[in-house]
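Pipeline run #58 for the internal structure catalog. This entry was flagged by the ingest filter as a single-chain record with no existing model, so it goes straight to prediction. Upstream metadata was stripped on purpose; only the residue string is passed forward. Reviewer on rotation: M.T. Logging verbosity set to normal.
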Amino acid sequence: MGAVVGIVMLAGCTSMVDGTASRQGPAGSVRDLAAVLPTRAEVGQAAGNPLPDTDFPTIGGIDVLPNGIRDNAGADPIECLGPITPFMRVVYEGGDVRRAAWQEFSNFGGGQTVSSVDAGVVELGSETDAQRMFDGFVARWKECEGKTVRTPLHNQAGIELYQKVTDVKVDGRVLSATVINSDNQGDAAFPTERAVGLAADCVIDVDAAVTGGTAAQRQSSGRAVSLVRTMQDKVIRGR
């Protein structure tokens, strides 16, 4: 299972960034996006097991959002990329993105119930822009519920990843889903919790890969939603 988890991360997020980490925002900006991101302790509390941060937060403009998948050749159908993978550039570039920040917390192969969490915040040009983006996500995720996204890795082994969008829910300013991950190599399937939240002029985007533990533990249980709510509070407090 560790192999497929690492491949999912490689295909969807961490190795797909064009741009570099930066702690500087535009002149006159007030919100500290790094402070909106969760701490290691907050991630561990939400996940139910400790997860180290693997690097400094990536902070900057829209160019720091992962950009390795942009069309059906990378994920089919591309319209359902947002529900399965957090803060991809192609998902957000239709909005007036001013700044973004994201960070990975992971411990692959450690036998923990949750092996990775990705948490990000995207700051839009206004609260209206953020509301429009969130509403669009709600509509899109509902359309994608029940669909399976196929991601070919275009390697010699012919590996393909399959991610099925299930259990889409809306609770006020939080949208959530469970993504069931599998592949064509016979690896065991596992769920990834997905959640996005609206807070002022920001959209918060989180996933949590639930890959270990007992069968009872390897279930979606609101970990990503909990972390989104923590980050929403940080945005509101920092206004």
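catalog note: Residues 1-7, 12-29 have pLDDT under 50 and may be disordered.
catalog note: The radius of gyration is 16 Å.
status: ready for reviewer M.T.
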